[in-house]
Task: inverse folding
């Protein structure tokens, strides 16, 4: 293979979005909450999903991570079709084990931190690498301490969640997600359960992660974060993408009345 060909191949691969959603639909008991969502997220991009409560943002995030199955459309993550494998041109649903394998590369941070209450911060962080990846305990601990330091908690490895503030717990949850070396991080309103004075410390960690090149999809009501950090802002309402673009476009010069009225309410 000549150098030129190799370069072209890697360029082609680099051009494939890390996440591609095509015409994704999802209903709960006949109530269609996603009505044909399209989204491309490129490597290293931060995409903020905005929209009123009930517009389908969380459901869409959960579909990407297979916490919900989709009814129509397709989602690819890093070129792999989510939830399926192809055998001789036919698509087969993945079984639970295969789904778990596909989900390993995606880190998710929830509104409620979901830490194990009877494990220390460090034990929470090393749990998945130990159990799922079979990493040696000492190695996992060293890495876990580095990750806790990265989120500003170098002094808290032995603290239990109950001894930590909400902001600290959420930062442990971020470190825990990072421990699996995800290629994609999903954040579902990571600061909305926090007291206002604790929001900044979590957003700061997320911003550093973005600066380090992590690909992130963030459901948030933090307009400042969306404006400053997002490469792409997606405004959803009623299960559809109403408007998307750069923060300066969607937040600064919204084209749709639904976006404008949402932004007015957020002020
Ligand atoms: P958002 O994140 O934008 O607030 P959601 O994705 O949480 O919106 O919810 C979209 C709609 O789907 C809401 O009407 C919600 O009640 C409904 N919904 C979400 N999850 C479920 C579920 N597991 N069962 C039934 N309805 C659900």
Result:
């Amino acid at each position: 293979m000549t150098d030129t060909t190799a370069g072209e191949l890697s360029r082609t691969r680099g051009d494939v979005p890390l996440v591609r959603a095509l015409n994704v639909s999802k209903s709960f008991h006949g109530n269609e909450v996603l009505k044909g969502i399209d989204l491309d997220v490129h490597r290293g991009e931060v995409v903020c999903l905005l929209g009123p409560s009930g517009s389908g943002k969380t459901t869409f995030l959960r579909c990407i991570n297979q916490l919900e199955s989709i009814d129509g459309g397709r989602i690819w993550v890093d070129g792999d079709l989510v939830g399926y494998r192809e055998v001789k041109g036919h698509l087969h649903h993945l079984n639970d084990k295969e789904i778990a394998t596909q989900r390993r590369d995606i880190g998710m941070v929830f509104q409620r931190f979901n830490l194990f209450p009877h494990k220390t911060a460090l034990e929470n962080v090393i749990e998945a690498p130990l159990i799922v990846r079979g990493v040696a305990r000492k190695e996992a601990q060293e890495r876990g301490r580095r990750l806790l330091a990265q989120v500003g908690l170098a002094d808290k490895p032995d603290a239990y969640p109950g001894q930590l503030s909400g902001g600290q717990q959420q930062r442990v949850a971020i470190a825990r997600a990072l421990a699996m070396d995800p290629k994609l991080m999903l954040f579902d309103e990571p600061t909305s359960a926090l007291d206002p004075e604790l929001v900044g410390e979590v957003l700061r960690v997320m911003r550093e992660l973005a600066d380090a090149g992590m690909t992130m999809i963030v459901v948030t009501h933090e307009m400042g974060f969306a404006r400053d950090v997002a490469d792409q802002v997606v405004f959803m309402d009623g299960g559809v993408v109403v408007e998307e673009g750069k923060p300066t476009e969607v937040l600064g010069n919204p084209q749709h009345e639904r976006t404008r009225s949402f932004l007015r309410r957020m002020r």
User: Anything to note?
Assistant: The pocket of adenosine-5'-diphosphate is lined by residues 28, 33, 51, 53-59 (CB under 6 Å).
